[in-house]
Amino acid sequence: MRILRSLESSYGPALLALVVALVLAPSATAYEVPSELNEVAHVYSLGVGEIRCPTRAEWEADWASSFGWAYTNVRMDYTVLGPVVCAGALGVGRADVPAWQQALGALVLAHEAFHLRHWRFRRNEGKVECQALANFRDATQRLGASAAQAEELYPYALALHGYKVRLFPQYRDPKCVIPPWEPPTTTG
Q1: SS3 track for the chain
Q2: How far is the CA of 156 from the CAs of 14, 99, 119, 146, 166, in angstroms?
Q3: How many domains does the chain have?
Q4: Which of 6, 72, 90, 139 has its CA 20 to 30 A from that of 154?
Q5: Half-sphere exposure in the Cβ direction for 102 (13 Å, CA)
Q6: Are residues 99 and 157 in the same domain?
Q7: What is Dmax (Cα atoms) for the chain?
């Protein structure tokens, strides 16, 4: 406090206001806000919120990145997807993006979109994950995959879900009916 009073008396209230503004202002970030991801997320969030894709440096500097692949601020209605997730979601349907990463991107995007949605289960990881799995095929197609590609990606989504549930049991909803995967039939 003594430093602030000294600044005010030495340099005037303008400098004091500038120093206070710089100290209290939130750090500005240049997160990319991909319209294609927001359009898909808005289908499941019912138009609520914003999807943000940080650079690798921004993601690593973000304290919340240490908790997972993405996070949603339910008070401010925005989601931040990690770089691997963003690249996966933006690369759905493309041969140059690994299938597991496409599935991760689509599943996490759908999952976080259900956190953005203003419904009574938005803070329930199990209910949100259930909705993400139930809508996975639709989400992948909205992101650019064909119906056949969506089917090919679904086993990866199921494997990712199983991995998540083993690490974090709260992602399992005992009442969830997970849509089954059936292997493709062969002809000839």
Answers
A1: CHHHHHHHHHHCHHHHHHHHHHHHCCCCCCCECCHHHHHHHHHHHCCCCEEEECCHHHHHHCHHHHHCCEEEECCCCEEEECHHHHHHHHCCCCCCCCHHHHHHHHHHHHHHHHHHCCCCCCCCHHHHHHHHHHCHHHHHHHCCCCHHHHHHHHHHHHHHHHHHHHHCHHHCCCCCCCCCCCCCCCCC
A2: 57, 8, 28, 16, 15
A3: 2
A4: 72
A5: 25
A6: yes
A7: 89
Q: Please report whether residue 1 resides in a domain.
A: yes
d(CA 98, CA 73): 28
Is 65 within a domain?
yes
State whether 115 and 141 are in the same domain.
Answer: yes
Residue 38 has pLDDT above 60, yes or no: yes
Q: Are 132 and 171 in contact (CB under 8 A)?
A: no
| Residue range of the domain that includes 4 | 1-29
Residues 44 and 4 in one domain: no
Side chain identity at 92, as an amino acid letter? V
Output phi, psi for 173, to 5 deg: -110, 110
Q: What is the mean pLDDT of residues 34-57?
A: 97
Mean pLDDT of the chain: 87
pLDDT score, position 19: 37
C-beta of residue 108 within 8 angstroms of C-beta of residue 140: no
